[in-house]
Amino acid sequence: MSKRRVMFTFPPERIEEPVIYLLGHQFGVVTNIRRADVTENKGWVVLELEGTDENIDRGIAWVAAKGIRVDSASGDAVEG
Amino acid sequence: MSYATSLRCRKCGGEYPLQAVNLCDFCFSPLDVAYDYKSISKQISRQAISSGPNSMWRYQDLLPVDGPVVDIGTGFTPLTKCDTLARELGLEQLYIKNDCLNPTYSFKDRAVSVAITKARELGFHTIACASTGNLAASVAAHAAKAGLQAYVFIPADIETGKVVGTAVYGPTLFAVQGSYDKVNVLCHRLAETYNWGFININLRPYYAEGSKTLGYEIAEQLNWRSPDCIVAPSASGLLFTRIWKGLNELSMLGLIEPVNTHMHLVQAAGSSPIVNAFRAGALHVHPVEPHTIAKSIAVGNPADGYYALKAVRESGGTAAAVSDEEIIAGMKLLARTEGIFAETAGGVVIAGLKNMVRSGEIKRDDLTVACITAAGLKTQEVVSDVVQPIVIQPTLESFQESVEMSRTAAAEVR
């Protein structure tokens, strides 16, 4: 089992969808929210994902395919 | 002996021992080094600092390391008064903090010198980083000096010529195929999987502290005062926040008067998440996908973005973005007026400074310091159009004829 700390950034049209619930339900990933701010215009959630690497990868790809941005919670690793 | 006491979460205040960890386990916010400032204040003085080495290590009491340092001669770079550029921009007092003159030609040497010293203290045998240029060169050079194994990850689409300045130090170089985002994901996975000192991931709290020395040097070189304005570029936001922290530490320790510096942040328009948040009046920095010629500051998801934004607001500064065309013009202007060839991030700073003076955000009589963070030879292709030699035959007549023709042409233009 692996853990990954990520940040989801939601566009307005996805804010009302239960994306995090469905991610856990459909991909067998445990979701654990640590920080978040959601308004009617935009939202971001910092959370930890726990599961097999394969399930986390598939789950993240499913979230990203919905137009939700997925980033590392610790910022970009690639620097100039 | 180090006066660092712990790592502290910048958001919730949670404390951690001085180990290789960068995020708070509770809220996943970045950790910062905390110090015993009371003890430092008994030890430190202007005189003690001034009698130290001519490098960033003259400030060792304010850095989180014990024992011998990994130093390749970084820091105490020139703070140059720039009257010609000042006149051109409409300023009375302008200084350039010229970090092109570090050993690997960028400010990254400051951060990496501290991070690798700490990595060795913590017992790491292998260090790693992911970079498109400046960080890679600095890590490879310091690893060579320290005798550590270095793994450097670069995006596969970087031109070979750009990594010569890294490869020459003998690191193991990996060119990762895939998008910028994919390289990011891989590096985070590597950091979780291997017991390496990953310079800007698990060593980030120490890496960050090295950048404070830029702020210390500015104050010391201005004869122990903080300027009215500082203009600095921002990628991850790390340097910007640490210049601010450095100035405030000096003030807290009684080495300079209370800080009244306006911190002005500049980014390239194609990668400006912090500027976007500033303009929107937002507290959160939303990530973007970077597209700019200023590769060295093209960070879409800045780890210290929130804190850079906070420093801008706390200091009464501003944040502005400039176009790629303005960046090139800024590089040329700095070279033409002051003889300093900066890379694209320097063009961002000069272009941003120009706009801020024009808009009145920086006033004519403000004592202003512009931070030039890396040398132009690293990105010379963006200004290659300046090479337009007059071709002549190897005879005196040919030379004289060409000179006459170019004089006539110049007169016609006027």
Structural topology:
The complex is a heterodimer of chains A (80) and B (414).
Chain A: E1 2-10, H1 19-27, E2 30-38, E3 43-51, H2 53-65, E4 69-72, E5 78-79
Helix pairs in contact in A: 1-2
Chain B: E1 4-9, E2 15-16, E3 31-35, H1 37-43, H2 46-50, E4 79-81, H3 83-89, E5 93-98, H4 108-121, E6 126-131, H5 134-146, E7 149-155, H6 164-167, E8 172-176, H7 180-193, E9 197-198, H8 204-210, H9 212-221, E10 229-233, H10 238-252, E11 262-268, H11 273-280, H12 305-315, E12 319-322, H13 324-338, H14 344-359, E13 367-372, H15 396-413
Parallel strand pairs in B: 5-13, 6-7, 6-9, 7-8, 10-11, 10-13, 11-12
Antiparallel strand pairs in B: 1-2, 1-3, 4-5
Question: What can you see in these coordinates?
Answer:
The complex is a heterodimer of chains A (80) and B (414). Chain A has 80 residues and is an alpha+beta fold. Chain A has one domain (2-72): Alpha-Beta Plaits. Chain A has two helices and five strands. Chain A has helices at residues 19-27, 53-65, and strands spanning 2-10, 30-38, 43-51, 69-72, 78-79. In chain A, helix 1 runs antiparallel to helix 2. In chain A, 38% of the residues are buried. The mean pLDDT of chain A is 94. Chain B is of the alpha/beta class and 414 residues long. Chain B folds into two domains: 4-67 and 108-207, 3-Layer(aba) Sandwich (Rossmann fold), CATH 3.40.50; 79-105 and 211-386, Rossmann fold (3-Layer(aba) Sandwich), CATH 3.40.50. Helix content of chain B is 40%, strand content 15%. Chain B contains 15 helices and 13 strands. Chain B has helices spanning 37-43, 46-50, 83-89, 108-121, 134-146, 164-167, 180-193, 204-210, 212-221, 238-252, 273-280, 305-315, 324-338, 344-359, 396-413; strands spanning 4-9, 15-16, 31-35, 79-81, 93-98, 126-131, 149-155, 172-176, 197-198, 229-233, 262-268, 319-322, 367-372. Chain B has a six-stranded mixed beta sheet with strand order 4-5-13-10-11-12, sandwiched between helices. In chain B, strands 8-7-6-9 form a four-stranded parallel beta sheet, with helices on both faces. Chain B has a three-stranded antiparallel beta sheet with strand order 2-1-3, with helices on one face. In chain B, helix 6 (164-167) links the parallel strand 7 and strand 8 (172-176). The A-B interface holds A 2-5, 7, 9, 34-35, 37, 42, 44, 46, 48, 69, 71-80 and B 11, 22-23, 26-30, 129-135, 153, 155, 180, 183-185, 187-188, 191-192, 198, 200-201, 204, 235-236, 283-284, 286-287, 295-305, 345, 374.
